[in-house]
Design goal:
This protein is mainly beta and 97 residues long. Helices cover 0% and strands 38% of the residues. The strands form two sheets. Strands 3, 4, 5, 6 and 7 form a five-stranded antiparallel sheet that branches. A two-stranded antiparallel ribbon has the order 1-2. The radius of gyration is 16 Å and the shape is globular.
Amino acid sequence: MNLQKPNRMGNVIPHQNTFPFGKNTSSVTISQLVPKMRISRLEVIVLEKDEDYVISKLKTPIYSLYVADKTASVVMAYFGDSARNINIGDVLRLENV
């Protein structure tokens, strides 16, 4: 029985376990990210947080967060006032983004 299937880009990925009702339980890592990729689940730790700045047209604060997991690190842009509550050392879980 072949438990591998191609993803949208034609690459073969291992079969992914699912909860009842089809909820995907698989996680991705930072090293697996590609531009415009849909993320089912990603957990990262905040290493650094820059001061916010505002987009002049939308007046929305944007925070630059330097985050990492066990495979790599990346700078992440976080939009909105709720980012004020994020601190260095916090673990963030991104789901279905």
